[in-house]
Structures are given as C-alpha cells and as structure tokens.
Design a protein that fits this description.
2 helices, mainly alpha, elongated, 0% strand
Length: 50
C-alpha cells in the first residue's frame, strides 16, 4: 500500500494558517466570555486556600 504524499502549495498553506489563527481567536474569545476571571479566582481561593 503506497500512500501518495499531498503537495501543499505556499498559498494554500497561508490560507490554512489564516484559518487556523481565526479559529484560535474565535475560541479564545468564547472562553473569555464564558470564564469571568474574578469569579474563577474566587472559586480557586475557596477551593485551595485553607
């Protein structure tokens, strides 16, 4: 079974990178909305500061 190697051209690579970074930014943005840092800090202190 021989596997053909895909040739990725530079412009395709650029598009892939752009898309990856866009997705990463979107995920990061959603996490920022979901996770309130002050609330997380309070939970952390309650759990681990004894």
């Amino acid at each position: 079974m021989s596997k053909k190697k895909e040739k990725i051209f530079e412009d395709e690579l650029e598009d892939l990178l752009d898309q990856t970074f866009e997705n990463q930014d979107m995920i990061h943005h959603k996490c920022q909305i979901r996770d309130d840092p002050a609330k997380k800090q309070a939970e952390w202190k309650k759990k681990y500061d004894r």
